[in-house]
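Entry for the shared binder. Reason: the reviewer on the internal report wants the predicted structure included alongside the sequence.
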Amino acid sequence: VQLVESGGGLVQAGGSLRLSCVASGSIFSVNAMGWYHQAPGRQRELVATITRGGSTNYADSMKGRFTISRDNAKNTVYLQMNNLKPEDTAVYYCNAVEYGLGGRHDYWGRGTQVTVST
């Protein structure tokens, strides 16, 4: 499974961005997809996830501001980010999860930078 993110950039606090992640390869085996972010000096953290059936999960600090969605026909997952804050500044990574005989396997994109200025 290959994942390619796009849509990052520089935005002022209070602004919005929409990230996209296009999946290719053996995507039939993917159970869930999501977004994580990693700020300098910090560990990678969950932002939001969405299952194949459309069930979603969000980190508490993103609830009400971020929305994850997916278009299965386009093999694409989106992250709509509204009311952005400087603390949202990070590299955002797309994630895909596959469960097989060997257990869970995670795939990652290369990331896209989001910078929120004051």
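Summary line for the report: The chain has a mean pLDDT of 95.
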